[in-house]
């Protein structure tokens, strides 16, 4: 995947799963939007952990002003004010893509966004975008807020449920890691005890 500055080779992969934790919203979305337009399929997980520059109270007031913008006679016609962090990220990316053209609409079809890490992506290799990290792009003294907290302030009611599911996922991941370490230790122990003097020449003859 040709994510600029992420240290990955500039080539397409079938699907790239990005862990959004501690990424700045605008820089993350700009990089993902470019990749979508180039034809890459992207999945964003843990959108509730995205960071936004500026204090929580400032961003909350900005969002409340955004809630006032609606259709005068029939609000069901839009604009739609998404509260879920994943939908806020999706809408931000949509604003960076020509979504009313066929090319932009096809690009958005290649995007998936999730709060938390649902299956099957909990067992998938994930990448990050260093150019979008808060710690590399924001001074330590600057204020920032977490998108999940902002969403909870303006009407998102599923933060507790996502936290509960994430705790279960982390417990399963820790158990898997311990099993994996034990198997690696057993393998090294078996390799140390094994006598391969007779087998090694045969394997070398076949190129192993």
Commentary on this structure:
There is one protein chain. By secondary structure, the chain is an alpha/beta fold. Helices cover 46% and strands 9% of the residues. It has 8 helices and 6 strands, in the order βαββαααββαβααα. The strands form 2 sheets. It has a 4-stranded parallel β-sheet with strand order 4-2-1-5. A two-stranded antiparallel sheet has the order 3-6. β1 (16-19), α1 and β2 (42-45) form a beta-alpha-beta unit. The protein is elongated. The mean pLDDT is 93.
What is the element layout, followed by pairings?
Blueprint: E1 16-19, H1 25-37, E2 42-45, E3 51-53, H2 56-67, H3 85-94, H4 102-109, E4 111-113, E5 126-127, H5 134-137, E6 144-146, H6 147-153, H7 159-193, H8 199-205
Helix pairs in contact: 1-3
């Amino acid at each position: 995947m040709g994510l600029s500055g992420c240290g990955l080779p500039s080539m397409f992969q079938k699907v790239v799963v990005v862990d959004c934790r501690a990424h700045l919203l605008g820089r993350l979305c700009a990089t993902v939007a470019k990749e979508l337009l180039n034809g890459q399929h992207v999945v964003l997980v843990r959108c509730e952990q995205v960071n936004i520059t500026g204090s929580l109270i400032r961003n909350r007031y900005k969002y409340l002003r955004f809630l006032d913008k609606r259709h005068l006679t029939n609000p069901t016609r839009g604009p739609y004010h998404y509260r879920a962090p994943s939908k806020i990220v999706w809408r931000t990316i949509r604003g960076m893509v020509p979504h009313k053209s066929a090319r932009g609409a096809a690009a958005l079809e290649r995007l998936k966004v999730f709060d938390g890490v649902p299956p099957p992506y909990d067992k998938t290799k994930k990448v990050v975008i260093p150019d979008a990290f808060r710690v590399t792009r924001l001074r330590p003294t600057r204020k920032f807020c977490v998108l999940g907290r902002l969403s909870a302030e303006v009407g998102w009611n599923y933060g507790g449920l996502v936290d509960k599911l994430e705790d279960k996922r982390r417990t399963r991941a820790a158990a898997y890691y311990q099993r994996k370490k034990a198997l690696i230790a057993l393998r090294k122990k078996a390799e140390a005890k094994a006598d391969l003097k007779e087998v090694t020449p045969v394997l070398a003859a076949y190129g192993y």
